Amino acid sequence: MIWRNLGFIALFFIGCLLLTMLWLRWYTHHGQELTLPSYIDMSLAEAQKDAGDKSFEIVVIDSVFIVGQPGNIILDQNPPANSIVKQERKIYVTTTKDEAELIPFRRLPVLYGKSYNRKEMELQQGFELETKVVGRRYDSGAPDHILEVIYNGETVVNSNFRKDNVMVEKGGTLEMILSKSSGGPITMPSLTCKAYTEVQFLVETLNLALGATESDETVTNIDDSFVWKQTPSANSRIYTGDTVTLFLTQDLPSDCPDQ
Questions:
Q1: pLDDT band at 183 (very low <50, low <70, confident <90, very high)
Q2: Rounded to whole angstroms, how far apart are CA atoms 39 and 25?
Q3: What is the mean pLDDT of residues 208-228?
């Protein structure tokens, strides 16, 4: 009986000793300092699993939409990678968003009548918006200026209105119609009886294209020749950019007034 009691007492002390050793081991490692890994460019789910295995906690404090990036990717963390931290440390991260941010059209700069090249750069750098030229239309002003803006099939800017309440997705595309100097209607002037060099200057001034010239057998010096016939004919309705054909002869035609 005595030996059995002594055995129980010995087992009790051995058990206490083991429990004390386990507690000391846990206490020693609790609050242990660890090197923090990098979670940047990892998915949030992957980072949370790894952090949980290392007794850290991931806390999302902000999310940002980035064109072309999937959502829930870690962009930044605090503390940064390789920091020495204790267990159960909270790691604050910024992630990417799944959904694009919406930009009210009223925040965009004035577009109608402005240079396309300048606004293309401004929209890309300031708002992460793409632009695409989908057409050109004659305008009496300078070429390559914005006449119309289309978003998702809807005209949002032209000479008459601007729809400031339209919401545009960051990374979206604004389609644009630009001005061109050719295509405007004009009345074809009379070129007959004029010197070839004079007609060259006039055609260029009217934004017309000088096509083929046909010289008769008298022409020896085209620069000193005269126009005796033209296509299109004088007073016909044409458009800037159209092509003019000249028929030349060396001397001033006899039915022309003296110059």
A1: confident
A2: 29
A3: 92
In which region does residue 19 sit, left (phi positive, over 0), alpha (psi from -120 to 50) or beta (all else)? alpha
26 pLDDT higher than 70: no
- Cβ-based neighbours of 21, under 8 Å, separated by 6 or more: none
Is 22 domain-assigned? no
Task: Using alpha carbons, list the distances in angstroms from residue 131 to 12, 94, 99, 109, 127.
Answer: 81, 29, 20, 14, 11
| Contact between 220 and 187 (Cβ < 8 Å) | no
Contacts of residue 123, defined as CB under 8 A and 6 or more positions apart, other chains included, come to 108, 109, 129, 130, 131, 174
- Residue finishing a domain among 135, 150, 180: 180
Hey, which residues does 7 pair with through a beta bridge? none
Average pLDDT score over residue span 144-166: 94
> Domain residues for 245?
185-249
Q: Are 50 and 61 in contact (CB under 8 A)?
A: no
Q: Name the residue with tokens 């990417």.
A: 96
To 5 degrees, how large is the angle CA 111–CA 114–CA 120? 70
Same domain, 117 and 176: yes
191 with 176, same domain: the answer is no
The pLDDT of residue 214 is 92
- Dist CA 175 CA 79 (whole Å): 43
Query: Is the pTM of the predicted complex or chain greater than 0.70?
Result: no
CATH number of the domain residue 59 falls in: 3.30.10.20
Q: How many domains does the chain have?
A: 3
Of 80, 99, 118, which one is at a domain's C-terminal end? 99
| Tokens matching residue 166 | 């339209």
Does some domain include residue 242?
A: yes
- 229 vs 193: CA distance, rounded Å: 8
